Amino acid sequence: MKKIKVMSVFGTRPEAIKMAPLVKNLAARPEFESICCLTGQHRQMLDSVLEIFRLKGDYDLNIMKDRQTLSSITSSTILGMDGVIQAAKPDLILVHGDTSTTFAGALSAFYHQIPVGHVEAGLRTWDRYSPFPEEMNRTLVGDIAELHFAPTRANADNLEREAIRGDIFITGNTVIDAMATTVRPDFVFTDPALNALDFTGKRVVAVTCHRRENYGKPMQQIMEAIRQMVLTHPDVEVVYPVHLSPVVRECAFGILGGVERVHLIDPIDVEQMHNLMARCYLVMTDSGGLQEEAPALGKPVLVLRRETERPEAVRAGTVKLAGVEKEEILRLANSLLEDPAAYAAMAHAVNPYGDGHACDRIAQGILWHFGLSGERPADFGA
Ligand code: UD1
Ligand code: UDP
Asked: What is the spatial distance between Cα 6 and Cα 75, in angstroms, rounded to a whole number?
């Protein structure tokens, strides 16, 4: 039997974390040949994920530049993918989520008339500039893709409302599959700053922040709020692995550098990040992935954005949209630090984003699409 050759294309940290379990799941099945094309949109942060999941790229476009622009990422990827697609001749190209790698990878596949499967499809804010450029990237890939792997029923409903062409599967998010291998009660941190933390005597707040639409004033306001929060709560320790983007680093170190009980550290590998979240008191972030992971670990999340394409955990009560104004962020943080009832109301584990079997459903969906299985995978949450 001829195997289905699936080429997964990814290039940033979150895509790699969420594609790693799928690439491995497909590789373990006799019906598939599973290969990877890395764009290298991120370098160090991508390589860190590959190391943890023991993955390697069959192709690597290595496109990252310092302070890269959206046009540079998109054009380098499209040009680089030409040769890769001609050499690899995949039957299906998988892309993930909403980055510039995702969009350019899908467009390249389309130019070569290779079908595209979109993992983590159908999330929407309906605001074209927030998140920017991710909302538009994800929407455009929805038009290109033939297979849509929507994490939740609400995501699938969005695609149906847009009359998207192709097969829609409700799979859960592959990040929940990834967490089954990363989160361990006996985990020992390798980062000395994390090992030195007192998770029982202190309240550890895990922070990340990197979104392009937060560059400038919003990011300054966020950092100011965190500074104020830590200075007014002597038992709070902030751990903030700072994204490698120079724009972010200038802002974070400029406002939070040298502030007592604020630990600004380099990005940590995904195992350390997941276990940090599992042990912390509260998460403050503008990240997409953290909004999915923290609720599964029972940790309240304040989202440092004006809107979110992930409303499920907001509805479940574990995530609050804090916005990007200093006073409102502080008000919500103070409430979680000072009012035990407010904290208890948010700190419960919910898994609206998956049950750990998203990769199996995606593999089954591909087999069904290619006529190799008579059985469509059952929807997540059905
Ligand atoms: C990208 C994605 C965003 C995703 C985020 C995850 C786009 C447009 N944005 O944003 O959707 O949420 O990744 O983190 O696709 N850098 C390094 N080393 C690294 C990674 C980044 O030095 O390993 C620096 C480089 O100077 C680079 C800059 O960070 O130019 C920005 O990286 P880029 O991928 O353009 O944007 P992100 O903010 O990371
Ligand atoms: N993450 C990590 N190390 C860090 C910060 C985040 O491994 O220092 C992980 C995090 O657990 C999540 C993913 O990176 O799985 C989120 O990536 P990011 O916030 O960069 O992107 P987004 O999800 O917003 O697209």
From this structure: 23
